[in-house]
Amino acid sequence: MARRGIAIACLLVACTVHGKSQVPDSAAHVRIIELFTRGYTLIATSPSDAIPVFEEILRLDSTNLTAQRQLGSLYANAGRPGDALDRFIAAYRLMPSDTTRLQIAYLLALMGENRRAYRQFRILSESADSSLRAAAEPASVVLSTMACAQQFPWWFRAQASPYFDTRFNDLIFLGALYAGRYIDSSRVVSGYAVLSLSADTRSTGGAFPVIFSDNYILAGLGLRIIPFRGFTTEVQGGLAVNLVDRPDQKTVRGDFRAVASYGIGLFPRIFTPDLVAFTPSPFADVYASFGYYSRYENGLGYMQARAGCRLLTYRHSALDLYARVNIAADTEGDFYNNVLEAGPGLSVVPEYTWGMSLTVEYLRGTYWSANQQGNPYGKTYTSVRIFLLFDRFLCN
Asked: Which of 15, 150, 170, 172 is most buried (most C-beta within 10 Å)?
């Protein structure tokens, strides 16, 4: 009786969810019902063995919406996202629905098709179904930046980090614009052009320059290699124009740098509540780099590490609290390039998709190099730094 009930249910579904059947005779309809019964029985015991059963149903009738969806789910669970995507696309063409579109969007994201996935999630973020909107909106936020980062063959990136340092009462600006082109679709190797700026408000030139931060405009060409996620090597050459007159340097100088860097992180969850909400989500990240810079005739290494919690969220905005450690070192032993800093920070993200944050950090630091010659500041210090950080890949 149970098997008969399943067969009748499958027949009703098969007859009502799709249009004109490709199967003209009743014997074939009976065969499809038998296959549905067998397929659903196998799903409960051996899902992989159910796949050929539903494939057989679609060979008999490719317009069967139920079979298209079920086979798509089986393919996805079996680790075959490409085949699953084909089935859900076929199901959507038979009967468009936001639920099916959501499956398509998730599969595209799983396959790394971020631009296509973003378009689907963006449509779903305006769905009439509130549960689908809640699922789609965070995904569309995340993918909006990932889609730009993975476009091919051209990529564009803008970075800026102006900050005010209370220790020196100085406003410092660092920024760069990149335009690059990948060598092939693997996105491992790319050539790029860069225009960057470093400047501050207190450094002065002349016969007796007083330098708080480097001041120059740089135009260069480089080669970037990303052999695996998080690790980047860059070799770059160009020309730098000094913005502060210094008797020991030419105004225009050649610039060469070769840098390797690695970054990894655990990122906070994206929430988009309609009201301000306490949504604690931990995060941690580490970034390290080391390279040779001809401008300084020195090898410089940096490491930054954070650990904290995303405390409050509202729509596309968030408030983060964290602790930070900064370490700098060089090969020449200059005191100002050998620094250890630590302290708390508070960051406001005004809009996830902007790639921007306003950050305040309180840091205690020490010059840890054994060579303190020429250090007029003392070995330890305190600084409050207020950053406006921007880092975003730009879509063409």
From this structure: 172
